Amino acid sequence: MTGTWTVFRWELYKITRQAKAQIVLAACLLGPFLFVAALNAQSNVPQDTLFGRWVHDSGFAVPLVVLGFAGQWALPAITAVVAGDMFAAEDRYGTWKTILTRSRGRTQVFAGKALAATAFSVAATVVLALASLAAGVLLVGRQPMVGLSGTLLPAGRCAALVLASWASVLPPVLAFTALGLLLSVAGRSGALGVGGPVVVGLVLQLVSLVNAPVLVRTLLPTTAFGAWHGLFADRPFYGPLQQGTLVSALYLAVCAGAAYALLRRRDITGG
Amino acid sequence: MPDAPVEASGLVRRFGAATAVAGVDLRVGPGRVHGLVGPNGAGKTTLLAMILGLVRPDAGAVRLFGRTHAADGARALDGVGGFVEAPAFYPYLTGRANLALLADLDGGGARGRVGAALELAGLGAAAGTRVGGYSVGMRQRLGLAAALLRDPRLLVLDEPTSGLDPSGRRDVRALVARLAGEGVAVLLSSHDMDEVEDLCDDVTIVAGGRAVFDGTLADLRGRAPAPAFRLATGDDRAALALAADVPGVAAEARDDGLLVRAPRERLDAYVIALGRAGVAVRALALESSALRGAFFALTEGADA
Fold first, then answer.
1. CB contact under 8 A, B49 and A269
2. Are residues B90 and A104, on separate chains, in Cβ contact within 8 Å?
3. Quick one: which H or E segment has residue B257?
4. I need a surface site. Which of A54, B35, B192, B300 has the fewest CB within 10 A?
């Protein structure tokens, strides 16, 4: 555990020293404020998005609109920026042979790196969630919001539901993080690791839009990004959340397991 | 009897249809400097990578102080420091941060040795500079510092003087000699036969994935042909004729003078004979040392 913790700590340090991670976190922090400023500058609202019509009436609609957009491609992209390059960067810099000839085994190196990528994904999601909520509350207001059943939800309940909704996307976020890690190990290319999850996310969104069978849609990790909708009904339904969490856990286990197996058995030649 | 720093037997490694290493045995004794020499593509780097556990052999076994990678995992490298190919680091971190990272991966007291290792490698002044701004030679020095952090009893160095200027090469050679004097075993891959001659006690020459020589430097010298010298004279035709009269001297005409093969004492006799015959010697330079001659003789044609 000490070895894994050491690797984890240094990977976090390395992440904070890289411009791409700083840019992503800054975008997560400032993006929602720019988004609300742009919305406030126009009378149109994103009506085709759930809660989009309320963005001028309640600040709590803002984080939900952002969550709707983010689930389509932004969250896979945000997580992949670090996870997709976590292992490929060692190939690019040729540093595998530097770190694998020290006193830590491949299991510890893998675990430390995977945990660091996970920590970044969770941190970026949390920053985006809190920034969206803050942007909505500060720039629009704390007005009550109409729920999916047509009843008015008080501000306190709205805030709790917004946070719960954002928390509900953590399982698919982690599934996409694991996909990024797998592509990073298998492809040994940051471009594949970073771009792959984004493309996969978009393709799967497309599959769910073209009337795919229910079973197929249920088994897509992207479906879990919309599972929070049920929280806003008068009688909340949690089935999609449970299914989404299970499906995400499955993707996470398969992708992380495959990535670990590949790293364990690969020869370090050149990198 | 203590376990040898390196005991490798029957190492085989194939990459697809190509056989990079085809059954090599290698033993490095305590306090010995062992040269691993061979032309490009001979299998040296793959051999070193197998020794350091970066590449798994298809057959054969590696023991480092009696430990194996399969049974002992990362602990197999306890007491082992070094690098394969050019040392590589994170370019966006400083030299000191790179070493601190590696020291933490090593654990123990390595973190406390970072400053001393940087000073020893001559990088004290550049420790706070990002590695992305380092020259090839500075990275090479940082690689040595990273190896020394582990307080090694075995150093595995892949062409450690590559990219260094003459003073850097001199420093590294002195450092290797000093460490060997303190009992550290060194396995050193090199292209430079002069370096091997300066530093090594034992030599393994590989070609085409096989060991074509394995023995002491003295053994290799014993098998070496006479060294070759470039000779320019006032009258090359007369010098060529005179060479035929001096036993142990073979000369041939070239565009820029003569190529003379002779042991040093026979060469001395030849040069004296040239002087006595009134043939002026304008230039005399070593073309190929005895060891280099042995290297070429052993490796040429071995790839086939």
1. yes
2. no
3. strand B257-261
4. B300
